[in-house]
Design a protein that fits this description.
- This protein is of the alpha/beta class.
- Helices cover about 35% and strands about 10% of the residues.
- It is built from 7 helices and 5 strands, in the order βαβαβααβαβαα.
- The chain has a 5-stranded parallel β-sheet with strand order 3-2-1-4-5, with helices on both faces.
- Helix 4 crosses helix 5 (about 140-155) and helix 6 (about 170-175) packs across helix 7 (about 200-215).
């Protein structure tokens, strides 16, 4: 059998199944002919629903430039065994501030795994759905630039870290993706079966953003 030619250079997208990263996948098709969503399982309580939603979302809007999601594992349970994200206890509710949902070092771990994958699969760039106002220390421009600067030492070549939405907020991102099946995305930390709970911090953020964007929210909430 003849050897197949290598795939063309492309862009990976760190995908969570949520609004920002799902819309970002389609945004990157403006600049790349090959876009690879990368979902990383960390052992958090809502990942089954996220991954299922990501797959349904992409199947509903087929695009030959977008590859099927790649699923990698980078478990966090051993470093944060008592954190609400893995225990499901005391999940931040609708009235909590944005920084209540912080998971220590999560972006550092996810980016590290994704960059190694990117370097081995001709992905010259890695896009991340960081939006304006993200309060976490591993989502700042300084962190992203510093991390990118380390990639040649880690994998032998520079993998650019792209943050196209870092200057826009969530309602602006929703408007950019309003023609996509956004009800198939998932952003809930305490799902009820396959549905959003309707009461956690992320559900409240989602509902508020749809309302402010004046885009119909077709999400199914349990409460």
């Amino acid at each position: 059998m003849a050897n197949l030619p290598p795939p063309p250079p492309g862009c990976g997208v760190l995908a969570s199944g949520g609004l920002d990263s799902s819309i970002l996948i389609f945004r990157m098709t403006y600049d790349f002919d090959r876009v690879v969503p990368i979902y990383i399982r960390a052992g958090l309580g809502w990942e089954e629903q996220e991954l299922s939603s990501l797959r349904r979302f992409l199947e509903a809007e087929p695009d030959q430039r977008i590859a099927p999601p790649v699923v990698l594992d980078a478990p966090l349970r051993d470093v944060v065994p008592d954190h609400w994200s893995v225990t499901g206890k005391s999940v931040p509710g609708a009235g909590t501030p944005d920084d209540a949902v912080h998971i220590p070092g999560r972006n550092l771990i996810l980016l590290s795994k994704a960059v190694v994958y990117a370097s081995l699969h001709r992905l010259t760039d890695l896009a991340v759905g960081i939006i304006r106002g993200n309060p976490f220390p591993d989502a700042t421009p300084e962190f992203i630039l510093t991390f990118q600067g380390l990639t040649p030492f880690a994998v032998g070549s520079t993998v650019r870290i792209l943050t196209p939405y870092s200057q826009v907020n969530k309602l602006q991102v929703i408007r950019k993706g309003k023609d996509l099946p956004l009800h198939l995305t998932f952003s809930c930390m305490q799902p009820v079966g396959d549905r959003h709970c309707g009461h956690c911090n992320k559900c409240a953020e989602r509902q508020k953003a749809f309302l402010q964007a004046q885009v119909e929210d077709r999400t199914e909430y349990a409460g």
